[in-house]
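Reading a protein record of the kind used here takes only a little practice. To see the layout at work, look at the sequence and tokens printed below.
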Amino acid sequence: MPLALLALAIGAFGIGTTEFVIMGLLPEVAGDYGVSIPTAGFLVTGYALGVMFGAPLMTVLGTRVPRKRMLMLLMGLFIIGNLISALAPAFSVMLIGRVVASLAHGAFFGIGSVVAADLVAPDKKAGAIAMMFTGLTVANVVGVPLGTLVGQTAGWRVTFAVVAALGVVGLAGVAKLVPDLPKPEGVRLRHELAAFRNAQVLLAMAMTVLGFGGVFAAITYIAPMMTHTAGFAEGSVTWLLVLFGLGMVGGNLVGGKFADRALMPMLYTSLGGLAVVLALFTFTAHNKIAAAVTIALIGALGFATVPPLQKRVLDHAHGAPTLASAVNIGAFNLGNALSAWLGGLVIAAGLGYTAPNWVGAVLAAAALALAFLSAALERRAETPTTATATATAIATADAGPADRPAVAHH
């Protein structure tokens, strides 16, 4: 594998760390700025919304400059955003920093995937893209727990300063190791946008929003839920996030393995299981061992949906894979934003720190319903074609010699 993939993986590691580490540090940030936990949750929502809008915008803008330069610009944006967060004198300034950093997220993965695939032989493209995304999954096993530990011991500002430094390493790696690639052909925006008129693309993205939203309704408020309800010490949140990360890695691998073999059954299983586990989390959150097991299961079931959902979008987004891929990354983050906001609402309403789990269960169940709807529409779309072909075959078979067209002989 080319060393350039390592540079892309380091960038992905930094981006994954900054996205998820805030969830383990919400109590510290809220306490420092004198805001409530639900208000601090806007740091999750703001980042997610930034990814949602930034992914398609930056991907389209990125077609105007060489890909290597665009990747460097995106890492620069990421570094600036995290430095603003680290130094922010007020909560509103930190929120701005989160949004600035988020603008780099979707486009980095969208453009980075194309670059990774271009660096290797055709039969190794999937492996190259997976290598880059390894940075994101490892971030959740190593970067997020370590970042949470650093934030709880040395202060959350140090965490964001370290993440900014990771961005500098990623930027240097891209500059040094990624070769200069030819400027891509200009995107025909009208053609790209045509993919979004496909009902199956929109349904897959809606499943992404609701399914991933189910995961982050619970995980956004994992720190206060585990310390106040389960009785864990603050330092234990780090190890709970390691469990969540390990679940993610395992679920992602299983989802990827079965997405090619049986995509829709994989979605039914993972979304159905996720809805049940999230509903049960309301009860298991009162027991330390049961809560830990449940957190790992949420990570596994939630991220088992990622490969099949991403593949379903690409399968139906004919002619616009880069933009559709970037927009679906935005859809994952719209799910984050929606669930963080809804979770904050039910906590603020006095329903307790476990209430977001019910929100997550409802969102996951809604995604499952959409999966069944999508499959039903697909079967209905195929039925007329099959019926027409059958009718034609019968008519041809029944036609007598006089009814058949004459064949010219030369």
